[in-house]
Design brief:
Elements: H1 8-20, H2 25-43, E1 49-53, H3 57-71, E2 76-80, H4 89-97, E3 102-104, E4 115-119, H5 131-142, E5 147-150, E6 171-175, H6 187-191, E7 193-197, H7 203-207, E8 213-215, H8 218-221, E9 239-243, H9 250-261, E10 266-272, H10 276-282, E11 287-291, H11 296-301, E12 308-311, H12 319-330, E13 335-338, H13 340-343, H14 349-355, E14 360-363, H15 366-372, H16 379-390, E15 393-396, E16 402-404, E17 410-412, H17 425-438, H18 443-461, H19 470-483
Parallel strand pairs: 1-2, 1-4, 2-3, 4-5, 5-6, 6-7, 8-17, 9-10, 9-12, 10-11, 12-13, 13-14, 14-15
Antiparallel strand pairs: 15-16, 16-17
Helix pairs in contact: 2-3, 2-4, 3-4, 9-17, 9-19, 17-18, 18-19
Amino acid sequence: MICSLLSVAQTREADRLAMEAGTPGAHLMQRSGESVAREVARRWTPRPVTVLCGPGNNGGDGFVVAIVLAEAGWPVRVALLGDIQALRGDAQYHAKRWHGPVEPLGPACIEEAELVIDAVFGAGLSRRVDMRVIDTLSFARRRAVPILAVDMPSGVTGDGGENWGATAAVCSVTFMRKKPGHLLLPGRDLCGEVVVADIGIPHALISSVALDTWENAPALWRGKLPQLQATANKYSRGHALLYGGYPMTGAARMAARAAARMGAGLTTIAVPQQAFAIYASALTSIMVQPLIKERDFARLLQDRRYSGFLIGPGAGVNEATRARALAILATGKPTVIDADAISVFASRPAELFEAILGPCVLTPHEGEFKRLFEPTGDKLSRARWAARSSGAVVVLKGADTVIAAPDGRAIINFNAPPTLATAGSGDVLGGLILGLLTQGMDAFPAAAAAVWVHGAAAADFGPGLLAEDLPDLAPSVLRRLEDRA
């Protein structure tokens, strides 16, 4: 299943279209609250529960939860932030259906609670949470009372996963689709387990809302992976060329092995002459081309048999790296720009962007990203802006890697284990992307596929992972993808 994500605005639009098609908003709110109550009943036996309601539609969902649980025999207290008379529309309708007392929201309302339902603010919040909410939820945390959040924990932004004063929930029940904030940090760690509830809005209607963001999963790109043909040979599978630096040689060697393991028919590293013995002695199936004369690299780029390039890992932040990166980009062939080849353009990013003539993937971590781009905001917005500005697919790396295309599409990765926080893992990722580009895969799905394979390979290995382990783990991940196709 393709896992699309809905922004706050897209969620509201889907609600509007559903109501326009004949489903009253009060019914949608009823279904939302019922789905939360079902999840509560699935996880816990009846116990004293306090439902914290806010002044908007999220609070209306909370009133439905309270009604359903009370009718099922749960001891329920309801607390409201603000005045019940100030509620509007569907929220007011469901609040009037609650016949119990409504307390002011504060720590006192959860003194006897063994479960708290956080229905104060939903995904659309963009300001710091009221201190009464922070104090109340913090009190629950100190008492080790579990919190279940309706849509998002109050204080987590739905579009960016930013934290405006949230307290972590053990579970968040959202509706129709996940929001980007369920996957982006720090929101991801605050949401707990995310349950997506079906509230009866047809999939076709949801899909009509200009979807542009997805959770990374094989369904997005498996059908676009390079397919081996009976008539294939090493040349038809593509020839990858990397630049290998000196004296830092390990990064490029790992990237080259990753490209080969990802399926490139041939892989060559061009290296300074003084480094030739180091590379040649460490690599067998990877060809090593020494650069003896100044024009040797330019001559390599003129060879039409090369179908993909990577420069950056271990290349050095110097004028030679800048010149070689520009020369590679001038070919118009698929290119990965990583590591030092990003940093070398820190003082002149426009020069890099203007040189991008063909398919290009930039793979910065946060530090490298800041050397090229200035925008502030959440990670998804920054990656999108960078892709539009540069004309490249941008892979903004991290535990919540974002892959963004120049046309505005974006994919958020979710499968990267913490063991990937090890030196050289990013270099391997660059090689995995190169391996797919070299075989003719389009840049956006190639980047997404490589990021997912990277995470799955690390998860397969488990504790003690070294970056050099990753290339040899990729084939088993690819085999599983092939078996499930």
